[in-house]
Amino acid sequence: MRLGVLFSGGKDSAYACWKAIQKDEVACLITIKSANPESYMFHTPNISLTSMQAEAAGIPLLEEESHGEKEAELSDLKHAIERAIDNYDVEGIVTGAVMSVYQAERVQRICHELRLWCFNPIWHTNQERYMTSLISEGFEMIISGVFSEPFDENWLGRTISNEMIEELKNIRNRYRISITGEGGEYESSVLDAPFFRKKIMVTDSRKEYGNHNGRFVISNAVLVEK
Amino acid sequence: MILLIDMSYLRNSLSTMEFVYPVEDIATEEGFSTTICHRTELSEEMITDARKIILCGTALRDNGFLSDLKRFDWLYEIQKPVLGICAGMQAIAIVFGGNIATETEIGMREVKVNLQDPVFGGRKEFMAYEMHSQKVEPPDNFKVIAVSGERPVAIRHRQKKIYGALFHPEVRNNWFVTNFLET
Asked: What is the pLDDT at residue A47?
């Protein structure tokens, strides 16, 4: 089955893509570039990195701009998926939804309207096992945005490692966070993945931070041999 | 051993990850051992060895199991507890003489318990995730134990511990699966 993956460049959509590659055929990646940093539907930090990630993976990328207004962004998503049907003959959509019923429900509705299959391979997965799998299966990821306590600017740009997963587990109960960042506590950017032919090296970046709200802005990056 | 039957279009597929693994996680976290088997690979031995059986859900467009229900004749004779989730409930209903009809629901819905049963753990109502393209008209030998609006969303055999849940308990209602496994 030819699949389009809703791809934000973060760990969840990249891992869902990896599972789709292992079990089926990924025809294209679909990225929504939302102008709204508060979007409930779409990941926003370093979204422009997706073109480099698609190049690294050797998979076509379909991009759609969205103003990010709450329900209008769903029309933008639907339009992007329609383009994926027209241009890449996709029969199904893959998402990296982990726990968010809000996101999953809306994508399911669009797929139903367009008569597409919808797959959510990390839906309600065991969070600790999932985080560990990311590392063991060869993903290299950094924290690209922080949006809640206790995450401060020191977290920005850090590599997600087994040590960090232990740290997240230790602070989970105290701050009521999800270790996957599913509650919007943090966002990630993937620099390398098992399906990348090359990896991304960040050559220039800066941190923007204030009041537990910050971004690691990648202003320049290059693809390098693995 | 708890036998988890993968009702989806293909064994070890993306749907297995979405609809079977979360149920497996609930069972293993409660200390139960599990075996996953695709509906096309079921054997009498597996059914005999199982302590309880769960028929898992499928993707919204995945109705292939409806053309494969001859494999589920064993349900009619079984004396062990069985839970059918979504597609699983549809399969159970048809095997026992009920029907399904087109009706799509996607999202969180309010469920009202109209007949108390140990699987509800005393709850009278709760919010549940529904994602199906067919509703179930229950067979005569089943009672409706919970509804969402007018729609039966949980049923139970009148004599046996055979249950159906049209909603997905693995989403925000793990307790439902746990109660089924423990009662």
From this structure: 73
- Residue A109: its chain B contacts at CB < 8 A? 106
Active site residue B170: yes
Q: Which of A108, A119, A125 lies at the smallest CB-CB distance from B106?
A: A108
For B127-183, the pLDDT digits (tens) are: 999 999 999 999 999 999 999 999 999 999 999 999 999 999 999 999 999 999 998
Q: Rounded distance, CA B124 to CA B115, Å?
A: 9
Element (DSSP H or E) covering residue A18: helix A11-23
Equal fold, A2-119 vs A127-225 = no
Residue A201 to residues A80, A157, A219, Cα–Cα distance (Å): 29, 12, 12
Task: Compute the C-alpha angle A51/A55/A57, nearest 5°.
Answer: 115
Distance of alpha carbon A94 from alpha carbon B122, whole angstroms: 37
pTM reported for the whole predicted model: 0.95
Contact predicate A50/A7, CB 8 Å = yes
CB of B34 within 8 Å of any CB in chain A?
no
Question: What's the confidence (pLDDT) of residue B37?
Answer: 98
Task: Establish, for the pair of chains A and B, how many residue pairs have beta carbons separated by less than 8 Å.
Answer: 60
Determine if the peptide bond prior to A150 is cis (ω within 30°): yes
Of all residues in chain A, the one with the smallest CA distance to B173 is A124
Would strands B151-157 and B142-148 be described as parallel, antiparallel, or unpaired?
Answer: antiparallel
Report the top-level CATH class of B2-182: alpha beta
Check: CATH 3.40.50.170 for A127-225?
no
Check CB contact of B70 with chain A, cutoff 8 Å.
Answer: no
In chain A, which residues have their Cβ closer than 8 Å to the Cβ of B15?
Answer: 119
Catalytic residue among B56, B86, B130, B132: B86
Specify whether domain A2-119 bears CATH 3.40.50.620. Answer: yes
Domain ranges of chain B: 2-182
What are the tens digits of pLDDT across the range A76-102? Answer: 999 999 999 999 999 999 999 999 999
**Would you list the domain boundaries of chain A?**
2-119, 127-225
Of residues A226 and A35, the one with the higher pLDDT is A226
Judged by a CB distance cut-off of 8 A, whether residue A116 touches chain B is yes
Question: What is the average pLDDT across B26-51?
Answer: 97
